[in-house]
Specification:
This is FadR family transcriptional regulator. InterPro entries: GntR_C, TF_FadR/GntR_C, Tscrpt_reg_HTH_GntR, WH-like_DNA-bd_sf, WH_DNA-bd_sf. Keywords: DNA-binding, Transcription, Transcription regulation. It comes from Aminipila luticellarii. Helices cover about 70% and strands about 5% of the residues. It is mostly helical. The protein has 2 domains: about 5-80, Arc Repressor Mutant, subunit A, CATH 1.10.10.10; about 100-235, Four Helix Bundle (Hemerythrin (Met), subunit A), CATH 1.20.120. Strand 1 and strand 2 (about 10-15) form a beta hairpin. It starts with a strand and ends with a helix.
Length: about 240
């Protein structure tokens, strides 16, 4: 959680006004007064109830918006969105730019999460989602590398959605920007043989999903990430 801090005399003091606004919104959610996509009370109302200035409430709401908790709509007000993966995505992107994390580390995290997502997807995937994955896979057979990168992204997007686990979906969404860049980085100059291996990994994933072969599917997911890792290390 982002908090403002004042340093002095060897002490760190949290901005209590910011926390008051956070707690106010949380309590309104607990009481059932505010739901996802609902409009929050006006700044004036919150200022009166919390005994704060409207300026302090406004600054707190702006910080909450930056964190993805709410959305400010011009001329309408503030709405509860719960898009917290926005803050996570920005943090990961900044860490990557500052070289605190690497492509390889992002892929390691995605490998672990996606392996579990695959297990859930086998249980929850619908016939329509299977059909969509088949269509994506078929299109991967004949495209050039630029289009293959997009099809790879779409395949994994559909598979992760089929897990129906909202936390996994949020984590993978937050990692998507760097993951897409890493796949492009790794596959930009691969051979036709490597391209065919990549397509084969997706074929195995889908086949095992249709047959409900959890062990085989998890193995195929790992083969996919092993291939990406080998491409990454060749490009270093």
């Amino acid at each position: 959680m982002t908090i403002w801090k004042l340093r002095g005399g060897g002490r760190t003091v949290e901005n209590r006004e910011y926390r008051k606004v956070i707690e106010y919104v949380k309590n309104e959610i607990k009481r059932g007064h505010i739901h996802l996509e609902d409009k929050l009370p006006a700044e004036r109302v919150m200022a009166e109830e919390l005994d704060m200035s409207r300026g302090s409430v406004r600054e707190a709401l702006r910080t909450m918006e930056n964190m993805g908790m709410l959305e400010s709509r011009q001329g309408s007000g503030n709405y509860l969105t719960g898009n917290l993966n926005k803050a996570f995505q920005e943090s990961i992107s900044m860490m990557f730019l500052l070289k605190q994390v690497s492509y390889s580390e992002v892929n390691t995290l995605r490998r672990a999460v996606e392996t579990e997502a695959y297990t859930l997807a086998i249980k929850n995937i619908s016939d329509n989602q299977i059909k969509q994955l088949k269509e994506v896979l078929e299109s991967m057979q004949t495209v050039e590398i630029d289009e293959l990168i997009l099809r790879d992204k779409e395949f994994h997007y559909q598979m992760i959605r089929a897990s129906e686990n909202h936390l996994i979906i949020s984590i993978m969404d937050a990692l998507e920007e760097i993951y897409a860049a890493s796949v492009e980085h790794m596959l930009r100059s691969v051979s036709e043989q490597t391209k065919n291996k990549l397509v084969l990994c997706h074929e195995k994933m889908l086949d095992c999903m249709i047959r409900k072969d959890e062990d085989g599917g998890r193995k195929a997911v790992n083969e996919h990430y092993d291939l990406l890792e080998s491409c990454y290390h060749r490009k270093k």
